[in-house]
Amino acid sequence: MPSYNPFTITQPTEIHFGQGIIQSLPAVIKQIGGSKPLIVIDPGLEQAGLDKGILKHLKSDKISYKVYNKVDPEPGLKLADQGAKIALKGGCDCVVGIGGGSAMDIAKAIAILMTNGGKAEDYIGLGKINKPGVPKIMVPTSAGTGAEATFTAVFINEKTGSKGGMNGDPLYPEAAILDPELTHSLPPHVTATTGIDALTHALESYTSIQAHPISEMYSTSAISLISQNIRTAYADGRNMEARSNMLLASLMAGKGLAMAGVGLVHAMAYPLGGMFGIPHGLANAVLLPYVTEYNVIGNLQKHAHIAEMLDLDIKGLSLRDAAGMSAAGLHDLNHDLGIPASLVDLGISEDRIPEMADIALTVARPVENNPRQPSRDEVIAIYEYAMEGEGPF
After folding, report:
1. CA 87 to CA 72: how far, in whole Å?
2. Has residue 392 got a pLDDT over 70?
3. What angle is formed at CA 201 by the lines to CA 195 and CA 207, rounded to 5 degrees?
4. Which of 56, 66, 78, 141 counts the most CB atoms within 10 A of its CB?
5. 223 touches 206 (CB < 8 A)
6. From CA 133, how far away is CA 138, in angstroms rounded?
7. What is the pLDDT of residue 194?
8. How far is residue 22 from each of residues 45, 243, 246, measured CA to CA in Å?
9. Rounded CA gap, 268 and 287, in Å?
10. Distance between the two ends of the chain, CA-based, in angstroms?
11. What is the pLDDT of residues 191-241, one digit of tens each?
12. Res 1: pLDDT
């Protein structure tokens, strides 16, 4: 029987999933003890008119609310500080985050600041949150971050340009409402990058040295669902079966992430966001095949299994060759989804690579979780091969 590291599981979030289930938002607000929510919403959703279809349920139930739409793709800490002030001044007693990972991260941070005080920068790190926040509900409108099921909120520090996260059990949402119909209008490129973001969470939590049987159950289910559905969701966003499966996969990947953590892809993606403003999902997507190629020898069995879950034919191959197919499959998937093949395509300057490597190696937890421990020279080499669009690992 295989041996595993000791593990602890925390799953406090009540999940509501299904087409049309957004209509339950008023009931869920009341269930968590709320009466006047602060609605943190991506301004792009307002421009698309999606907010009206969501907020009408609050209006029909005569629930008063305030809206905060200061959401950026790579949010700064001040956005959480400003939102908390508005929520407290407006007498709000709960927070609802509607949108992608940025909106949900800001919403989670606001909920913490409303009871703990101070500024968002005071809570960057692990174990710095002393009190529970006000109750919070997450409503994802893309299938990517899984933030509705995690204890992390990630921000850019405007003072330093660095990217870091609040981490702690009080950040777990009390409830999440996942309605596939809310993802119906996602454009193909967003479907692609958010979907590969979810796949990155699933792959990295599966190969993490902190993985265990329960986390692996979520991670592998997510990998399989994404492999089977992301191309369809990208090609035809009207396909609600594919949309539903992608949203479910994103949730599962988020749960795997919360239990086992992520790895080197995330550490190396942080400087792309902090230094160049590259959206998190896109940064992960471009780096994923290259880091996977580097990681293969860290766990041949799991990478061979990943190749199988990506629907690749590994029959008759050696374990090493089968494992290596995982990176090839990810390159092919990115190509099918129109994701750039190299960092050059993102406008990254090659002379910044040493600085990027130094920053990546400070993102300690993901680096420690990685199945292969990288040196500075190896991180630089991965960036260089991602810059060129090829790799030797």
Report:
1. 18
2. no
3. 135
4. 141
5. yes
6. 14
7. 97
8. 15, 15, 17
9. 8
10. 32
11. 999 999 999 999 999 999 999 999 999 999 999 999 999 999 999 999 999
12. 42
For the record, the structure tokens of 272 come out as 């792309």
**Distance between CA atoms of 167 and 91, rounded to whole angstroms?**
26
Strand pairing category for 66-68 and 37-41:
parallel
DSSP element (H, E) containing 84 = helix 77-89
What are the residues whose beta carbons fall under 8 Å from the beta carbon of 366, sequence distance 6 or more? 204, 261, 262, 263, 264, 265, 266, 267
The SS3 of residue 74 is coil
Spell out the residues 6+ positions from residue 284 whose beta carbon is closer than 8 angstroms to its own.
Answer: 196, 197, 200, 265, 266, 269
Nearest to 260, CA basis, from 66, 10, 19: 10
Helix axes 319-336, 300-309, angle to 10 degrees: 40
Alpha helix segments (H runs only) across 236-373? 240-260, 264-276, 280-295, 300-309, 319-336, 353-360, 364-369
Residues 314 and 301 sit within 8 Å (Cβ to Cβ): no
What tokens appear for 101 in the block? 């990972």
Q: Distance (Å, rounded) from C-alpha 10 to C-alpha 77? A: 26
One-letter amino acid of 300: L
For residue 4, pLDDT over 90 is answered with no
Within a 10 A sphere around the Cβ of 132, how many other Cβ atoms?
Answer: 16
In this predicted structure, the answer to whether residue 390 has a pLDDT above a threshold of 80 is: no
Sequential DSSP letters for 97-136 = EEESHHHHHHHHHHHHHHHH-S-GGGGBEES---S--S-E
Query: How many Cβ atoms from other residues are within 10 Å of residue 165's Cβ?
Result: 22
Q: CA nearest 82: which of 92, 65, 70?
A: 70
Query: Could you say which architecture CATH assigns to the domain 188-388?
Result: Up-down Bundle (1.20)
The predicted structure's pLDDT at residue 170? 97
Instruction: Name the residue ranges covered by the structural domains of the chain.
Output: 14-183, 188-388
The architecture in CATH of the region 14-183 reads 3-Layer(aba) Sandwich (3.40)
Q: What is the pTM of this model?
A: 0.95
Identify the pLDDT of residue 191.
97
The pLDDT value recorded for residue 391 is 65
- Count Cβ atoms below 10 Å from residue 211 Cβ, excluding itself: 24
Q: Which amino acid is at 341?
A: A
Which three-class secondary structure state does DSSP give residue 159? Answer: coil
